[in-house]
Amino acid sequence: MKIILIICIIIVLVVLFLTLLSTNKAYKYEHTIDPIEPTKNEKDPAEEEKR
Fold first, then answer.
1. Organism's domain of life (predicted)?
2. Which residue positions in the chain have pLDDT lower than 50?
């Protein structure tokens, strides 16, 4: 019975460690955002000021 309990505790600790490692790696990831290009229907604000 003690062997099963020790194995279960080891499995829980390994899963906890991997979860923390994965979460830490995810928070360090830098997201990049592509600039939005204006479509034909949208007006450029710089052109509006020139008029």
1. Bacteria
2. none
Q: What would the two tokens of residue 45 be? A: 């604000």
Q: What is the pTM of this model?
A: 0.56
Q: What is the pLDDT of residue 51?
A: 54
Q: Which of 29, 28, 25, 6 has the alpha carbon at shortest distance from 17?
A: 25
DSSP conformation letters of 9-51: HHHHHHHHHHHHHHHHHHHHPPP--PPPPP-TTSPPHHHHHH-
DSSP 8-state class, residue 3: H
